[in-house]
Structure formats: structure tokens, C-alpha cells
Amino acid sequence: MGGTIxxxxxxxxxxxxxxxxxxxxxxxxxxxxxxxEAAAAARVLGCDHRLLDFPDTRLTNDVETREAxxxxxxxxxxxxxxxxxxxxxxxxxxxxxxVDHLATGAVIRDAVKLARIRGIEPSLPAHDVQRLFYxxxxxxxxxxxxxxxxxxxxxxxxxxxxxxxxxxxxxxRHKILEILQTFRRYFGxxxxxEYAEPFVSEEPLVADAETLxxx
Length: 215
Prior knowledge:
Layout: H1 2-10, E1 16-19, H2 31-45, E2 48-51, H3 63-76, E3 80-84, H4 99-115, E4 131-135, E5 145-148, H5 153-162, H6 164-167, E6 170-171, E7 174-175, H7 176-191, E8 196-201
Parallel strand pairs: 1-2, 3-4
Antiparallel strand pairs: 4-8, 5-8, 6-7
């Protein structure tokens, strides 16, 4: 959802990327390179970022993780939260179906719920996130809405280039950058623009007369 991050940041919205792990067990790159790449990409996108230290490939939706993320949500008080979609029926070669991505979607969903409950850790004021949206929409599921990121593709591509270790990856002779561009072109066709990013909302979206024709 890098194009959407660039759009929001350019619109004056305060955005923070939170990675739950540091990729210490990944195939490509080290913790040091991942930190450097994440910081460089965030600078290009115009947002803040932080890397947490939950165990790579071992992220679980347990009490400790849920409550740690609930405390983070209460401390930051975000109006919107985006998380990877929590369920996928796709094969093990699909990058969006990484075990940590799926676990992140599930644990964030539950942490957002806990953040609203005043009886949990009363020393931290409860916080009700306005909307939880999911990115990394599985290919077998149609998104709820699309965001036109055409005007921000150049920024996105510069941010992606900062992830040098990841941009070397190829899938069936296609470079990762080409795959990510093609993905956005596909949804651009559905949105009536050049490039778009898809999202899922599991709750109803409300429109008024002013916004009805723009959703």
C-alpha cells in the first residue's frame, strides 16, 4: 500500500509504518540492512516508521502480542489502521501469504478491539480506531474499494528501490518491481485510472450525498 501511504503523506496526514518483526530469519538481507532500507523508504514516502522485535516467522496471535499492540494503539491514537489481510487460501509461493503477514492481520484486528475496552489497563486511556482496513488482498477475493495512486507511483517506485535486498528477488523470471507495477495496473483498470491499490473493509462504509459518487 505504498502508493496510498505516499498519497496520505502528501495530503498532510501523519502516517507511521510499524513493522512487527525485523526480518532476522529472512532469506534476503540482514537485520542491519532491513533497518537501513526501511528508514530510507519511509523518508521517500514522507512518513515515520518503527521496527518492533517480535520474532520473525514466529509471530502469533497470543495474549502478550495482542496486549502489546493494544498498548501501542492507545499510545499513538490512530484514526485509521491498515493491516495485511488475515486469511489466504493461496499457495505457499505467494508472498502475500507469508505466515507473519497473516498473523499480523489477525492480531491487529484483535488488538484494535481490545484498545476500545476501558477495563483493560485503565492506566492507558481507551482508544477507538475509526476504521480498520486491510491491504495485501488475496487474488481470489475482490476488494471493497480501490485508491487511485497514479500520481504517486514515482514516489512509490523510489521507496521500493530503497529495499535493495528485496528488489533483487524474481518470481518465474519476473522481477518484484514488475510484479508490483502490474498488480497496480490491473486494479487501475477496475478503478478507471492508470494505477490503483486495493483494500478490504469488513465493516460497512458510510457515504453521504457529497461522497456517494466518489466511492
